Amino acid sequence: MAEQQPSFDAAKYKNAQREQWNKDGAAWRRWNPTLDRWYGEVTRQMLDLARIQPGQRILDIAAGAGEPAVSAAERVGPGGYVLATDISEGIVELAFQVARERGLKQIETRAMDGEKLELPDASFDAVLCRLGLMYMPHPVTALREWRRALKAGGRVAVGVFSTPDRNSWGAMPASVIRRRAQLPPPVPGQPGPFSLGAPGVLEDVFRQAGFADPEVRAVPVPHGAASSAEYVRVAREAFGGFNAMMAHLSPEERESVWNEVEGALRSFESPGGFEVPGECLVGAATK
Fold first, then answer.
1. How far apart are CA 197 and CA 194, in angstroms?
2. Share above pLDDT 70 across residues of the chain, in percent, rounded to a whole number
3. Which of 90, 148, 230, 285 could form a disulfide with 225 if both were Cys (CB 3.0 to 4.6 A apart)?
């Protein structure tokens, strides 16, 4: 008899995600200037493809510590409205603080599961999700929910990472961690940074969810830092998934793994600093 394939436990995964972001959210916010430098162009292209106009109502899913909600709020202006949601209560509270510091009263925040929106039908002009959809266990289910919340003709715009070979910033540390932590390969259906990045996949999930006219473009996102060591400091603090992969290792072992990651990434250092390749796909479609 064939050995049964281990199944992916979506509920357990979501609880782990919530706990991880409640714990790591403050670090994500602390590194916001660096993260905005890396992903700011993705945000701009998402807002352009979503065709955001003054006065619109915008829903941001997996808003994290405030982007792209804050940028969207600046585009819709004081006559518009942005609801920033995230599965983590802790990180969405940080988004609220960022909005208030910027004087953006048109932003509200709520903790909410992106696959199960507690929102009325046809109540938003656009839905945004930057670097969140690929971590959702059921991306088509999520997109169907977002479509339900959109007005007729409304737009969805998402940003996801493309393929591992174009994202050494993540693929290289993950391969070192996977080997050192003796992790099995991901099980089928398991979400992750590159789960929607293969050619045609994002267009396909848009269509399966009932959206029309999907368009997808590649956006380079080189991850620059002063050095390999500084990049690893950001990764350790802001990319909680790496830490989750080696949670079962002792502190000494984890330190040793990070040292190996830093050494492996030194190949991306030059006299001008450090830059490791990355690429996102920005996709949009219409209800």
1. 5
2. 91
3. 230
pLDDT at 1: 38
**Contact in structure between 257 and 249 (CB atoms under 8 Å):** yes
Domain contains 258:
no
What domain range includes position 153?
A: 10-162+188-224+277-286
Run of H or E residues at 231: helix 228-238
**Residue 186: CB partners within 8 Å, gap ≥ 6?**
192
Identify whether 217 is part of a domain. yes
Report cis status (omega within 30 of 0) of the bond before 68: yes
Can you read off the two tokens belonging to residue 287?
């209800």
Integer Cα distance of 234 and 229 in angstroms: 9
> Which helix (DSSP H) or strand (DSSP E) does residue 59 occupy?
strand 57-60
pLDDT, tens digit, 9 for 90 and up, residues 49-60: 999 999 999 999
d(CA 266, CA 178): 19
CATH assignment at residue 208: 3.40.50.150
Residues 151-202: tens digit of each pLDDT: 999 999 999 999 999 999 999 999 999 999 999 887 767 788 899 999 999 9
Give the total number of structural domains in the chain. 1
